[in-house]
Amino acid sequence: MGGKSKSIFRLGVIMLLSLSVILSGCGGGNNKVANSGKGNNGNSGQVTGENAANGVEPFEISVFIGQPDQQPTPDNKIYKLIKEKTGASFKFEFLAGDIDQKLGVMIAGGDYPDMMTANQKLTAAGAFIPLEDLIEEHAPNLKKHYEKYWNMMKDPNDGHIYNLPNYGATNADVNSSWYSGPAFWIQKDVLAEAGYPQVKTLDQYFDLIKEYKAKHPEIDGTPTVGFEILNYDWKNWGLFNPPQHLIGHPNDGGVVVKDGVAEIFADKDFAKQYYQKLNQMNAEGVIDKETFTQNFDQYMAKLSSGAVLGMFDQHWNFQKAEDVLITQKKDNRTYVGLPLVFDESIKDHYKDRPALNLNNGFGITVNASEEQQIRIIKLLDTLIQEDWQKILAWGIEGEDYIVKDGRFMKTQEQRDQFTDATWKLANKADSFFGQAPKMEGLFSDGNATDGAAQPEEMQAALRDYDKEFLSKYGYSTYVDFFSPAPENDIAYPAWSVDLVDGSEAKIANTKLNELQTKFLPKAILAKPGEFESVWADYVKEIGKVNIKAYEDRINEVLQWRKDSWTVK
Amino acid sequence: MEQTLKKNRADRTPKKDKKITWSLIKDQSQLIYMSVPLLAYILLFAYYPIWGWTMAFQDYKPAKDFSDQKWVGFKHFEFLFKDDNFLQVLRNTLAMSVINLILGFTTAIILALLLNEIKKIFWKRTVQTISYLPHFLSWIIVTGIVATSLASDGIVNDVLMKLHLISEPIQWLSHGKYFWGIVGVSNVWKEVGWSTIIYLAAMSSIDPALYEAADIDGASRYRKMFHVTLPGIKPTIIILLIMQVGHILEAGFEIQYLLGNGLVVDWSQTIDIFVLKYGLAQGNYSLATAAGIFKTVVSVTLLLIANGVSKRLGEERLL
């Protein structure tokens, strides 16, 4: 065998291998003719929302989820039920690593699964198909579900609907017992020791922390930290966002919207007032010296130690640290969110009505065949119906929840299961459900769509420490610390505006963030006498950035939303 | 038998004026076939991608055909060179690179010389293994270790406090002036053991007769180090140096990205981070490509200069 035939042989092997990879990739869609009709009388008595036209012909949908997650177990009971009733099974791919990198590779190769979670990069690259006609024709239930939000879902750039938002299409305003948003957080013990005072302003807040820190220089052997400011990577709101809340505005990201017009606040006087306060607090030793050099893990480790008295953050961001404190039985070291403002004349607006979660949820890609597109939209249409929604949110009646006098409830054992990640992989369809269109608010029988919003569940889930703590304030949940959310501005929230990659607006935004990251810590850590000069430098540098391009882009989209979202 | 040997030897001696003839090609066909896969590999992965440089002169949008792209000339290069931060970023990159180069070379050579002097194989192996193990850690872990050791209750501050060298903990990572040093030292910690391997290999190939001769002349250990060992590994050092000069614009990315923060950004931001922020993170692949071209051009130029200098000095060279 000469060198020539060898290299030909090698080439042949390589081509054969790559061909087989390509073929297996393409063929995944429809050549599964498995046990179609079998066993569809199983434990599915409560399901009626079967799509008759679709029958139970099995098919597989390849799905990409844009966040890290774990594969469900092969015998997951909910997916099994979906397969039995609708024929659909899912092949999930989860994000590993960096989303931009992953999508960049996918886009470069044009290699998409059938269904993907939304991303502006994908839309810009033309990866998604417009869904309006598909929904009109094949999905009456989805159409009904999104009726009120139809215009909002359209892409401002070309007026098509590419994604089905996973959250925010609500049918009733239900108070959840769990506030996931931004607030100034304070350790419960600080309030308890001060005699459960009402804390409204920033000054009161820092006074309490100072006092407590002076009295307890150490907590469980760790030096007490007064206030933490997390600014690591994209988690920058701990440093950037508080000023807008302190003057009574909701979270609009980098701008405040006054009378429908957005402008940045990073260099405004009320921002200066906040950072100057932090500067004083730093001089008095309240702020953690390491706060600007720590990474997210170090931050979480500090919170989990129970020695941090306060911080500005979004609840979901540090929830894991709170879980650690609860398992250690340090209930008094967990946190209460406070909607602080500059002075008592300002009304707080931290809590907001859920806005439609734009640029999130599933879209169908151009790689799905026409037949597959119809099957997918029909499947989603089936699953948005109430009986399926109950299964996806609450589980199977009798197994995962109980019904008493028509009210849904859980036993303690069931409640514990719902926080057990391993159990969930086998018994919940969360990877799919988290991204899918879903009912929010109330079912037609009056039960809440979400366990955390069912009043009976809220009370039962409270621990003794919290029950007593809340009773001192006369509240029933921690959400009561916040003013009720007023009606949202039609164009709210400004943070979901797509600045368009590579545009002047986006570059201005990047530069602004860079300046904030650089100057704000400097200003806070400066000697009080030097604060003014650092601040002046900072404002001067911001003046050099093309802020107008950034504000113009946001205002343009806000105006577009106002024009096209208003229900006529 | 003897004849064939002679013939072979005659074939191998290079003749400058030898023409490439069909018979020669046929004679060496097996060699040529053997080189085909490698040649294909190089063409495919080193030369074909250069085609992508066209991106730098377009407003490149993915998923569009080449003919549909918009050509913009030198727009992205202009953005790069006109940006206020670019000079600073370039300075940081060069500074950290030079620090890494100097620290990296000196420490590795010194450690190699010391290891070479150890006569007990067991100790030598142990030290060597321990010193090159960090090479296998990823930067994310190393930066974690660095950040933890430099924290106010970390080991560095602890030791300095116990020695009464400082009265209160130093916030190492919040002062720009320390940053380059921290990067340099971390690099040394991670790579020093690994870099010694190649020098040790070079040292082992030095003719023992030279040492014996030096012994007879009554040379001390230091004399032997300076006059036998070091000259013995000089060619290796020079080749590595030339290769390193080509990488001068690559001061690393992970360590600065992961250890950097707002307070030290004026010292920590490198070209790669700049490109990530304004190029890749914004889907602006054209800018990233333009920066890539800039780096390549600078690297190749430096490499050629270093090679030329080395040639002039009558030393070893790469090309």
From TrEMBL, chain A:
Signal peptide: none annotated. PROSITE patterns: PROKAR_LIPOPROTEIN (PS51257). This is ABC transporter substrate-binding protein. It comes from the Bacteria. It comes from Paenibacillus vini. InterPro entries: Bact_solute-bd_prot1.
From TrEMBL, chain B:
PROSITE patterns: ABC_TM1 (PS50928). Keywords: Membrane, Transmembrane, Transmembrane helix, Transport. The chain crosses the membrane at residues 31-50, 94-115, 136-156, 192-211, 232-249, 285-309. Pfam families: BPD_transp_1 (PF00528). Its main location: membrane. It is found in: Cell membrane; Membrane. This is Sugar ABC transporter permease. The keyword Transmembrane helix applies. Belongs to the binding-protein-dependent transport system permease family. The keyword Transport applies. It is a multi-pass membrane protein. Coiled coil: none annotated. Residues 90-306 form the ABC transmembrane type-1 domain.
